[in-house]
Amino acid sequence: MGRAPFPGGAPAYRRDMPAPSLPTAPGFWRSPLRGPRFTAVLGLVLLAGITVLFVTGLVSYAAYNPDLSPVNDKTPDKGVLGFYLFAWPTNPHWLYRLTQGVHVTLGITLVPVLLAKLWSVVPKLFALPPARSLAHALERISLLLLVGGGLFEFVTGVLNIQLDYVFPGSFYPLHFYGAWVFFAAFVAHAVLKIPAAVRNVRRLRDEETDDLVPPDPDQPTVSRRGALWFVGGGSLLLFATTVGQGFDGLRRTALLAPHGGADPGTGPNGFQINKTAAYAGIDAAETGEDAWRLVVTGRSGTVRLSRAELARLPLHSSALPIACVEGWSTSDQWWRGVRLRDLAALVGYDDDPPDAFVESLQRHGAFRRAALRANQVADPRSLLALYVNGEDLSADHGYPARVIVPAAPGVLNTKWVARMTFGDL
């Protein structure tokens, strides 16, 4: 026997009919797992998870202080989308480590949920007629933007995490604008669907007349509850093989993270790095004691300091982590060097340190120059570090000197520093 006709005039499908060959036919999609309750559970999980992803993504962008200097802003045409930007704080010192770790780990963890959700609603993408009413047309448009935007954001994010970014153009603007398009569609879809999703979750069973329920389903090989457990298990597996990238003791378990293997080398400099001295094009001849000088410029003029002269200035220590946009981070490392505020004082800023512009010897890669806010310069834990964990910096960690600032993204902790300019940027 055939089932009752579907809403919108779609004909009932009967077993004695030929198997439909087009995805627009109601009987083409026959998985017994599809149904409004299954879809609603996945949708509510994504509602919470994607909201956290969006907020932590915006926070990550703010952490770069993009409205401070053009060199910090990889999305200069953001316009009104930058309405929320704020001066990034230095407390707590692990702030960026937490927010970006959550962003990346949660994004990877949600991949099975997103794929299962898209699979569960794929029949709706092929449903005819394309629009039965204005409300239905808006729902279909939001669904297309949601699906396309979701896939784009997750794919570009995963590629960037794996340091294998292949899309044309910079990751930063593509991911930023894509996030706003995706989240706008997500909010519109959620507003339309949350009441129905809550009702569907509370139901004991699916309504047979719902357009997600196949008219003539195949025999089930697993229950819907079993399918949800399978999706949840996949998410837990991805979580377990990613989260360790932010914890030294668990780093070997982060099999899917780009910095998930053993720490590079041993000893005081044996902790994670992003770019090596070789990759950055650092010439060892430029960093030798006889060749390298730090040029510090400010209100009262310019000072040039060798590494030996820096080491004779008052030195201070800070226990701070390195946290990268790809989601990996280190535990607190023990840095020792000259406070940035003391360097500012050398060039005329004794009481109120200003913003700073930092330039590196680096020849390749992004963020060869970076700007720091006055609050970052003034923090007593912000250093031009000469040593880490009791020894000289290694070449890969920024010898002869590098910046280290609490709560700042790793790219703002400039390595191989050549020049610092204090004052108006």
TrEMBL record:
<dbReference type="InterPro" id="IPR000572">
    <property type="entry name" value="OxRdtase_Mopterin-bd_dom"/>
</dbReference>
<feature type="transmembrane region" description="Helical">
    <location>
        <begin position="175"/>
        <end position="196"/>
    </location>
</feature>
<dbReference type="InterPro" id="IPR036374">
    <property type="entry name" value="OxRdtase_Mopterin-bd_sf"/>
</dbReference>
<keyword id="KW-0472">Membrane</keyword>
<feature type="transmembrane region" description="Helical">
    <location>
        <begin position="38"/>
        <end position="64"/>
    </location>
</feature>
<dbReference type="Pfam" id="PF00174">
    <property type="entry name" value="Oxidored_molyb"/>
</dbReference>
<feature type="transmembrane region" description="Helical">
    <location>
        <begin position="102"/>
        <end position="122"/>
    </location>
</feature>
<dbReference type="InterPro" id="IPR008335">
    <property type="entry name" value="Mopterin_OxRdtase_euk"/>
</dbReference>
<feature type="domain" description="Oxidoreductase molybdopterin-binding">
    <location>
        <begin position="289"/>
        <end position="422"/>
    </location>
</feature>
<keyword id="KW-1133">Transmembrane helix</keyword>
<protein>
    <submittedName>
        <fullName>Molybdopterin-dependent oxidoreductase</fullName>
    </submittedName>
</protein>
<feature type="transmembrane region" description="Helical">
    <location>
        <begin position="143"/>
        <end position="163"/>
    </location>
</feature>
<keyword id="KW-0812">Transmembrane</keyword>
<feature type="transmembrane region" description="Helical">
    <location>
        <begin position="227"/>
        <end position="247"/>
    </location>
</feature>
